[in-house]
Design goal:
256 residues; alpha/beta; seven-stranded parallel β-sheet; 9 helices; 12 strands
Length: 256
Amino acid sequence: MKIVVIGGSGLIGSKLVNKLRGEGHEAVAASPNSSVNTITGEGLAEALKGASVVVDVTNSPSWEDAAVMKFFETSTRNLLSYEAIAGVGHHVALSVVGSERMPESGYFRAKVAQERLIEESSVPCSIVRATQFFEFLKGLADISIEGSKVHLPPVLFQPMAADDVASGVGRIAVGAPVNRTVEIGGPEQFRLNELVARRLATLKDSREVIADPRARYSGAEVDDRTLVPGKNAQLGETRYETWLTQPAAKMAAAAH
C-alpha cells in the first residue's frame, strides 16, 4: 500500500516512514526537503499519485497566532483538495489531546480549525490526538521561564515517547478510516511541574521549577483534565524511566 507521510522528515514522520517500510508498505516521505510543499502545492499532485493513504504530521514553522492558523488552514485545504483529485481513500492527521480545551492558545485554536476542515472534507479520515512527547519536556521548560525560574502549573499530564506516537499513528494509517478522533497517550500520569523538574535534573540543568497554579501552558489556562486523554485512549508502552535509557532521550538532550 502506498502511504504518503507529509512531514516525513521530521521527528514523528521519519519514525513513521521507517515503521511503515518495515511492515512492507511503500511509505513516501514528503516534505519541502523532497520538493513537496503543502503551502504552495508544489509537488503534491506527483507525490499523491497512486496513494491509498496520506498521513499529515506537519507542524507550523511559526507559533505566532496568525501564522500558525494560516499554516494549518492553508496546508490542510491544499492537502484535502489534492487528495480528492488523486482519489486518496484515507486522510490521517496528527493532532493534540486537549486542543479544544485550550481556546486561549493560538496554536491550539489552529489545531481545532485543522480538525474541522478534515471532518468537513469528502475524504474519509482519522484524526489521532496525542499527548505531549517526552522529547519536548525541556522545551516546555524553555517556554515557561519567568525571571530565571520555570513556572509550570501542577496539573495532571500523561506524556508519551515519540516512538509510541509514530506506532499509534501507523496503526490507524494502515486500518480503515474511523471518521472520528482517536486519542493516544502515555502509560503513566505525572504532575507537569514534577516531571519537567525530573527531566531538567537528568540533563544537569540547574533551573528551578516552580509549581505555579496561575502559570499557563502555551498561553492557555489548564487544569487536571486539560492535558490527559479520555478513558478510551490507546496507551503507548514506553514508561518514562525506560525512555530515559533509550537513544531517543540522549538525542533529545543533544538537540537542545
